[in-house]
Amino acid sequence: MPPVVDLNADLGEEVTDDEALLGLVTSANVACGYHAGSPAIMRAVCALAAELGVSVGAQVSYADRENFGRVPLDVPAAVLREQVADQVGILSAIADSEGVPVRYLKPHGALYHRVRDDAEQAAAVLEGSGRLPVLGMSGRLLTLAGEAGREVILEGFPDRAYDGDRLRPRDRPGAVLTEDDAIVTQALALAGSVRSLCLHGDTPGAVAHARAVRAALEAAGWSLVGL
């Protein structure tokens, strides 16, 4: 059997062509309203995901629409737990009504990076998200999830530069890759070590990047299967 990989993208953020991306990816990280999105947008994404057979995940964030969830915030653990539960609950209700389950959890932006190191914040995210599998990079969140018996799913980023095992901060030169060739090369290099590859929906040219990455993966013998 061919090797399997997932191609995911951040959707419902009001900054990209959700319909076009849903025709290319196998999993959709749906913004749950705290950094972007709305119930109407969530419903539209979930409806099309159900039609196309794309898996849906809850992309939870700090409550910070002004900064797109990309600024670190000091949120008490009890508050963060309830915020995550609220986001997962809202998306789950909408997704269920459209005939597609929420299959996994993925933090967004500053929260994504915070829970790689902060055990208290990571625990709050887990406590607020039930028993959903957790998608992310290695760190405290995935370690705690695994210890709790939850499924953990490693991902890599074809459209971001790495410094060691970390993503280069967005305020540094070269942090975001924009050329198809570079993104495809990184996707093929990452595919053997992670279950899922993430393309940022808010990156200029995201649809073209997704099309190029999918074509290259399939040409290299990978079978694209959602989470």
From TrEMBL:
InterPro entries given in the database record: Glyco_hydro/deAcase_b/a-brl (IPR011330), LamB/YcsF/PxpA-like (IPR005501)
Gene3D superfamilies the UniProt entry points to: Glycoside hydrolase/deacetylase
Source organism, top-level taxon: Bacteria
Protein name, entry field: 5-oxoprolinase subunit PxpA
